[in-house]
Amino acid sequence: MRNLNDFIVFAHVVDHKGFAPAARALNVPKSTLSKRVAELERTLGVRLINRTSRRFTVTEIGEDFYRHAAAMLIEAEAAEAVVKGRLAEPSGTVRITASVPTAQMMLADLLPPLALAYPKMRVMLHATDRFVDVVQEGFDIAVRDHFAPLPDSGMVQRRVATDAILLVASPAYLENRGHPRDPSDLSRHDGLLASLTSEGWTMRNEAGVVVRVRPMPRFLADESHVLLSAAVSGLGITALPRKICRTEMEAGSLVRVLPDWEAGSVTTTLLMPHRRGQLPSVRAVVDFIVARLPAG
Amino acid sequence: MRNLNDFIVFAHVVDHKGFAPAARALNVPKSTLSKRVAELERTLGVRLINRTSRRFTVTEIGEDFYRHAAAMLIEAEAAEAVVKGRLAEPSGTVRITASVPTAQMMLADLLPPLALAYPKMRVMLHATDRFVDVVQEGFDIAVRDHFAPLPDSGMVQRRVATDAILLVASPAYLENRGHPRDPSDLSRHDGLLASLTSEGWTMRNEAGVVVRVRPMPRFLADESHVLLSAAVSGLGITALPRKICRTEMEAGSLVRVLPDWEAGSVTTTLLMPHRRGQLPSVRAVVDFIVARLPAG
DNA sequence: CTCCATTGTCTACAAATGTGGACGATAGAT
DNA sequence: ATCTATCGTCCACATTTGTAGACAATGGAG
What we know:
Two copies of one chain form a homodimer.
Chain A: H1 5-16, H2 19-26, H3 30-44, E1 49-51, E2 56-58, H4 60-84, E3 92-98, H5 100-117, E4 121-127, E5 141-146, E6 156-169, H6 171-177, E7 190-193, E8 201-205, E9 210-213, E10 216-220, H7 224-232, E11 237-241, H8 242-251, E12 255-256, E13 261-262, E14 265-272, H9 280-292
Parallel strand pairs in A: 3-4, 3-5, 7-10, 7-11
Antiparallel strand pairs in A: 1-2, 5-14, 6-11, 6-12, 6-14, 8-9, 8-13
Helix pairs in contact in A: 1-2, 1-3, 1-4, 2-3
The first copy, chain A, binds a DNA duplex through helix 3.
């Protein structure tokens, strides 16, 4: 098994441009460095450094070799620092669970910069639409989108965002079928619903008036982007969070229907197991998400 | 100076989940490995592995340490391979220049897999809309989108793609203003043009008939995506390469106008300085791009 | 419960590496 | 041309590491 210390010795010697300066810097005899590099060159079968008593140049292949040797050195120092706790920022794994749409719509934008901000922290996201027992399954944070308030489950709840649910349709559909003027008009329109058992939409306006409306089911899909595409295609009217259809609305491929009314709202809440002495890394994640989202 | 071989020994032991299997794999005595890892733990002052005669688990800090140790091993192997010439792939820097739209539309998809395919090659892309003197400014490859054939500039030309330019409009616009049935109908339609001095569109069909048509200038922009959005918004008819409006066409927010006719085509050509002994890395890039694009 | 195959640890001894100091080479100062 | 300070190399000896084999521990098979 090759002596990989020789790679590091070589990297140091190149960094310091000579055996004598490197020996002084490392506080080891220069004969040690000379011997080690000579041995390395012998076993590799190449000349890494051309040197005389007063000249010192790294060969071209020595430069290539040096790059990897230097990278090794960096990794070695990082390994040691990990153990010695030199790096002060949060570290370790933070396990997050969220539904697939939440993962796609919110976390896909948030987690990469989080990971960049905390290089020593490892973010692990589990996106699933099944029920997750947060404590039992060892997650640190669960991200929940919900329409009604969450029950008290003994976990710390931190609301981080609220998004209005809007009725939208394509201009083509509305030109073809007419603009609804009142929620009751919706019963004569084609609805793009999440499911056939959906009870329609509960509309609320700023005056606090609440109306339950039931459009004609025209298209069913329990995936928001499919509903979005269907709406853009002019199939009918759908109800989606503002965030999901913002791009299409801005592009004009979708427009608001009954702009003074909202079909409820969706709240995003972080759930953390309620245990004492929460890890700094979990706290860092929560603070990061809170800072990046408008308060609900 | 710490014995960094111990880091590598540790990485091997973790990889093989035990001293005995690692010893067999490395063909060294297990006592050597046991002693080295024990020494490493002693000097670091932490337990990296919990083990008994039949149990073997890596501690959490051992996992963190392992990641860097494994990275060290990879660098060591790469260093050795550099010298031994094991890596056959091209290396060094390839400098590419292209216009901003070309960079966004084509290279943004091609260059990441290229860089993945050739880990030893460093790809440097300079995206600019100003004139670039390829040879003078030291580029290896220039990617040019052009409508007319390129002049003979003494450089090697390699056509790699041709994209038809289509007339498109939103369904809303067409329902409102009617579908053109013939190119001559376009003179009564709103045109979304690249510039006011644009001489309209030169239409060609499969029979080889060529017609010059001039729509009413309704919106001017020399940025394709702005034209795209304008078309989607129902402002009029525009001429764009198929590639640019493919998503909207698939989504139904844009439809073909006069589907039997094309408004010319845009060709993508790679330009390389014509010098003898072209670098293997440049050749590799060209071959990669050619293989990934449909021939023009 | 017993037996057995295999694990990881320990240690005395063999082998390899680290080192101080001498020495030839060299480039700059005088 | 000469001198000097410092370079990298070499080598005999000191120090450290590698190893074979014994041994306690352990989990699965019977």
